[in-house]
Amino acid sequence: MPTPTDIITLGHGGGGRLMHDLIVNELLPASDVMSERDLEDAALIHGGRLAISTDGFTVKPLFFPGGDIGKLAVCGTINDVAMRGARCRWLSIAMIVQEGFALEDLRRIIQSIRAACDADGVHIVTGDTKVVGRAAADGLFITTTGVGERFADPAPSAGAARPGDRVIISGTLGDHGISILAAREELSLAGHIESDCASLLTLTEAMLAAGGPGVRTLRDMTRGGMSAALNEIAISSGVSIEIEEGAVPVRREVRGACELLGMSPFEIANEGKLLAIVAPERADEVLAAMRAHDLGGDAAIIGTVGDGRPGRISARTPLGTSRLIDLPPGELLPRIC
Ligand code: MG
């Protein structure tokens, strides 16, 4: 009998501690990535001129308020490529479809894939489709791989944060995860919550135009939410980070749902929000550029990079106390993206 430590659990896909350990112990040794400090949203290739990223999408339900699996799959990959200061130009799309899937649903998803690509000038240049038996999958899974041309010099990197830098987030946390949960479980939460699913490319371009090399790190806050992004950056850069909890924007409806469900909005996945580490002398310009953009109206400076114990994330609460923010342990919400 395999013990729980010998098998893959849903928690291994959660973007938290279990997934981190799986990547570091089982996957990295078989890859050409040197260490966990080199884990980025996208890898630079071809002498650093191109960035490449790949991502699998298993979200349930396939259609949700604010988007569907097609838009999510395109925007998710555009965003990972954008986090390295690159414009996604070419996309590969692989689909695993369950026997019995409605052609009409597939057409709707393909249309939204096309619309998301057209919005950012992305070309679908290759793909693959497999159909599996009814018990072998659940509806539709999509894997996208994007290749983009780098326009930022140097490329923002998870390893580039330095003590004194400011931490900026682009808007409210938790909208995507809570909207999926509400749609899936048919929860009637107070107020309608839509996914924030969106391409962050033009926001990223505006930030890099305003802050130049002062934009040291960019990370989209997907699985594991803001907590995972902060922890990963602090590990990669060998720094500590202190945030001001009261400065973190969260919608009232999302905060209410989180309290009801016993979850932290800091750990919930977003699909259209990024976290940036910016040099102190450029932080105000970058923040102004973000607030002038459609997707950055609620952008806020929420903290500072420090020179404390590397990897340590602390939050000052509105009560004036301090608490640690760890990598979330496992899976709060499976099949969120
Ligand atoms: Mg990412």
Low-confidence stretches: none
Q: What is the element string, with H for helices and E for strands?
A: HEEEEHEHEEEHHEHEHEHEEE
Helix-residue proportion: 25-40%
Strand content: 15-25%
Tell me the strand order in the biggest sheet: 9-11-8-12-10-13-14
Report the span from N to C terminus. Answer: 31 Å
- Determine the number of helices (DSSP H or I, runs of at least 4 residues): 8
Number of strands: 14
Q: What integer is the average pLDDT?
A: 94
Q: So what's the oligomer here?
A: single chain
Radius of gyration: 19 Å
What does the largest sheet look like? 7 strands, mixed
Structural class: alpha+beta
Secondary structure topology:
Layout: H1 17-27, E1 43-45, E2 50-57, E3 63-64, E4 67-68, H2 69-82, E5 86-98, H3 103-120, E6 123-132, E7 140-150, E8 166-169, H4 175-185, H5 201-211, E9 215-220, H6 225-237, E10 240-244, H7 252-261, E11 274-278, H8 283-291, E12 300-306, E13 313-316, E14 322-324
Parallel strand pairs: 5-6, 10-13
Antiparallel strand pairs: 1-2, 2-7, 3-4, 5-7, 8-11, 8-12, 9-11, 10-12, 13-14
Helix pairs in contact: 2-3, 5-8
